[in-house]
Amino acid sequence: MIGEPASKYGPPPARGETGNSASTGDGPRHVAIVGGGPVGMALALALELHGAGAQIFEARERGAARSDQRILALSQGSRQILDWLGVWHRIAATPIAAIHVSQQGGLGRTRLKAEDEGVEALGYVATAASVAAALDDALAGKRIPFHEHVRVDRVDQKPAGTESMSLFTANGELPARLVVFAEGRVEADAEAVTHDYGQHAVICTVTTEKPHGNVAFERFTAQGPLALLPHGRALAVVYTCPDDEVAALSTLDDASFLVRLQAHFGARMEFLSASPRQVFPLRLRYRKSPVGNRAVWLGNAAQTLHPVAGQGFNLALRDVWELSRCVGDAQDPGAAALLARYAGRRRADRMGVIGFTDSLIRLFSNDNPALRHGRGLGLLALDLLPPLKSFVAKRMMYGARAW
Ligand SMILES: Cc1cc2nc3c(=O)[nH]c(=O)nc-3n(C[C@H](O)[C@H](O)[C@H](O)COP(=O)(O)OP(=O)(O)OC[C@H]3O[C@@H](n4cnc5c(N)ncnc54)[C@H](O)[C@@H]3O)c2cc1C
């Protein structure tokens, strides 16, 4: 039977059930969020649902994220969390009915279908801009403080016994019991693990001769993976290429770019026109632990992933959901035991997604004939074994909460 899957990200607690005295409205705001990108905004809303007060400090002007041109694949789990946050209905999203996975120059392909999983969509596609706009409008509706043009220059621990941290901005010093870093990048310090893939992503949208039928394509090539996502009537392209090819690719005229893209993708779909291209460097960088003393790192500040499997924001939303459950009820949201509980509950999903994304790139971004053959067999096995296929589909839809 096809329908909406039962939500794995349940309704918020009714007010009064949490026992939280750090009420929102004019109450104290013990959580300081550094960064008003989509992840920081989602956390502020999630904490509000639990009755915990947060405020956002953003270096840029409010609304800057509304012009983010990236196109995001959102999992079923993300849809449920965005629904829980009360913003899903504001996001224009295209459902993904099937995902076609193949490799260039090799045998083997597989197709994951929503109907096989009994769901109306395996995931959805939306612009990062529309997600940010929906979150920002909801924040404004709830009057959650958003301090624009306020860069947090430094965060220090206060003397022992004061049970708070100090944020330093151009406006002075501010106390917070918990500081959440959602500033969009992993600091290159001793906590950071980095791997540079030597690749860039070129993104754009293309129109096609035939309707895409809500099918997403993931194609592995020796130069790197190529993803095409149904977005309205167009397909959103994430074209990975080696660093030394990016300058040429991004400056090609549209007709020559389409010829390159077509050669890369094959004849399954004919491309007609392309939008202007944008370029992003690709590397894996993550913090060994997403928590510290009265501090949590979230979203791209905790882990910046290769976009091949479209997992960065999806993983971050699951982190937001769990963090709000762990600290939202507490008198002291920065208490070490709560942060340790949060990190423990998120470890398997976090490390699973980091490992899965990294292995995909290492396994599929090369032209080794033995590996190509092995990959072909793997895709064939996936196609012939429905339980294995269902495992992969569920993992993509919900992360580690699939079961
Ligand atoms: C090409 C590409 C495709 C992608 N596709 C997908 C996909 O399909 N699905 C998916 O789930 N994910 C995808 N991602 C990942 C996704 O885009 C990120 O996970 C997400 O945008 C991270 O949001 P964020 O809020 O953590 O960071 P950001 O959006 O970078 O926001 C950080 C904010 O912090 C502010 N800031 C920084 N420093 C300070 C400071 N000191 N004080 C105050 N404010 C500060 C910045 O101004 C910024 O507004 C993709 C990424 C790329 C590059």
Short description:
The protein is an alpha+beta fold.
Shape: globular
Strand % is 25-35%
Distance between the termini: 19 Å
| Each distinct ligand | flavin-adenine dinucleotide
Mean pLDDT: 86
Biggest beta-sheet profile: 9 strands, mixed
Low-confidence stretches: 15-23
- Give me the number of helical elements: 10
Rg to the nearest angstrom?
A: 22 Å
Number of strands: 21
> Can you give the helix content as a percent range?
25-40%
Q: Helix/strand/pairing class, anyone?
A: alpha+beta
Give me some keywords for this one.
10 helices; 28% strand; binds flavin-adenine dinucleotide; 9-stranded mixed sheet; 21 strands; single chain; 403 residues; globular; alpha+beta; 6-stranded mixed sheet
